[in-house]
Amino acid sequence: MAIGAGMSCVKYLLFCFNLLFALTGLIILIVGIWVEANSHPYIDLTDESFYTTGPVVLIIVGVIVFIVAFFGCCGAVKENHCMIVTFAVFLLVIFIAEMAVGIAGYVKHDDIQNSIVRHLNTTIKDYPTNKEVQSTFDILQTDLQCCGIYGPGDWANNTLPIPDTCCAGREIKEGAAAACTPESPGFHTIGCLSKLVPFFNDMAMLLGGVGLGIAMVQLLGVIFACCLARSIRSEYETV
Question: Which family does it belong to (predicted)?
C-alpha cells in the first residue's frame, strides 16, 4: 500500500526518529544506572523516596524504550497501522513517566536539605550503639572528607567523641593510631551537610533534566506516529 508524498516523508522521519529514540533509551538507561550506583552509599541519609524510585523509573523506561523503538521501526517500514498506534501509545506512557521524573527532580531540588538535616540529627546520637548508623557516617565522612553535620562540633554537642573517620591520617604512637582531634593531620573541618546537599541537588537536576529533555523529543515521536497512523487509516478507507 502506498501513501502520499507528504506522509511518505513523515514515514521516513519516524523511522529515523526511532533510531534516535533507541539512542535516547540508551542514554536514559546509562543515567539511571549511574545515579543509582553513585547515590546508593548515601541514599539512607534522606527520607525522600524520589532518590530511590527516580533512578529505577529511568532504568525501566530505558529498557522499555528499546521495545517501543522496535514497534516504531517495524510499523513505519511496513506501514502497519496497529504497530504504529501501539508505538504511539507506549511512547505517550513513557512521555508521562519521564515528565513525572523530570518535574519531581526539580521539585525535590528544594526539599533535600531539610530531609538530610532531619535524618542526620535523628541518627547521630545513635552512632556509638547502632552499627548501621556508624557505618553510614563513617562512609560519608571518609568519602566526602567531612565531619559532623554542620561541622566537627556536632559530635561534642551530642556528647560524643570525634570519630576516627574525621581524620584523613593519624600519627602512630607506641604502635597504635592516635585519637582523631582537631589538631590531627588531615582533620576534616567541613560539615557533611555542605557537601551532601550539592551532591543530591546535582542528582536531582540530572534526573530532572534528562527526564524533561528527552520527554520533549519523544513528544515529537508521538506527533509523527499519529500523523502516519492517520494517513494509513485514510488510505485503507479509500481502498
Answer: Belongs to the tetraspanin (TM4SF) family.
